[in-house]
Amino acid sequence: MVKRAQDWIEVRPEGLYVRAGGFFVDPLRPVAKAVITHGHSDHARGGHAEVIATPETLAIMGLRLGEAAGGTRRPLPLGQRVRIGEVEVWLAPAGHVLGSAQVVLEYAGMRVVVSGDYKRASDPTCQAFEVVVCDVFVTEATFGLPVFRHPPAMAEIDRLLRSVRIFPERCHLIGAYSLGKAQRVIALLRAAGWERPIHLHGALQAMCALYGQYGVALGPLCPATLGSRETRSDLAGEIVIAPPGAIADRWARRLPDPVICLASGWMRVKQRARQRGVELPLVISDHADWDELLRTLDDVRAPEVWVTHGREEALVHAATQKGIRAQALALLGYEEEEG
Ligand SMILES: [Zn+2]
Ligand SMILES: [Zn+2]
To answer: Which residue from 9, 33, 47, 26 is spatially nearest to 94, judged by alpha carbons?
Structure first.
């Protein structure tokens, strides 16, 4: 008799294994069958024989991994049910990045939701998080400390645009993770009325084009390519977006007196901003903050919660105080994301 989720879901060295279905969710190593929540590289690794994910996530994996994306790719649109082994599986939107999904697992009268990464704040570039009431909720805890409270993203964009107005002779260079954050920043700028072309570092162009193919309107974008030794004085007063790793590059120094910005939930920690040479930190995150994590535990009404991926201890403690059976799920190998 199956009484507990632990009887059919377990942690193996490869990752979270759904034994009753014979598949892994976001495995860390190549496996026979993987269900993938979203395209970030610590979740969507290459080399699996069979990959099940939303069509958007499969496209993102194809773009990032090429041939290594996996053998058989089975698209599973949001809300559509499929039976894998003895388990009913469907995907619900997670509100994290384009195509991101929570994996809903139903077996033996029990429902387990593996949320992957998620956020509750609105994001014009992906479908909003859907609350799925369940028996066991597996949650991330990237920002699982009370100090992490993200301000409204639009307020951060307003600060950015104020700086652009104050320094018309300077270029604003925003570091933003290539999948999700960059496109969200662009969409927010458009919503705030910034109509001028936005200039992109080469590493962001293909992903922005893919978002466009999936109907996410980003407005006029153009490449911020810099020939060797060339200075782009024409970029004064303009906005340039680059991966976080590029904002301290030699490349960046050829922009006209750039104001270095970084869009990340980690920018809440002033020391981190200072360490990375960020003049204008923008606290914009694609992960739930502390309040969103707690609100989500209330919303999904799960009597049991497994916490992974970040600062498990504080969230386990807070959940326990709510009367929830909570435990840290020791899933090794997840890296800290750009947040
Ligand atoms: Zn992610
Ligand atoms: Zn993650």
So the answer is: 26
